[in-house]
Amino acid sequence: MMDSDGCTCFFDGNWRPCCVGHDYEYADGGTLKDKILADWKLSKCVAMKGGIKNKIASVTMFIGVSIGGYFRYRFRWRA
Prior knowledge:
The chain is mainly α. The protein is 58% helix and 0% strand.
């Protein structure tokens, strides 16, 4: 069974459930298209929390996971 650390290398804010879902998708892995979709879903989930702060966080997180999702973090993308 997989666990989650929430928003890896980012504070959890009110979007922790978005990050946990993203961790589970990363654990499943798949194609590059699957990774991009998982990253996009995270961004959309955070943005839907409302407010400019969450919209900025969603863009920041999308960029972060798009780049950082390949590094040796515990919850990196599994191809």
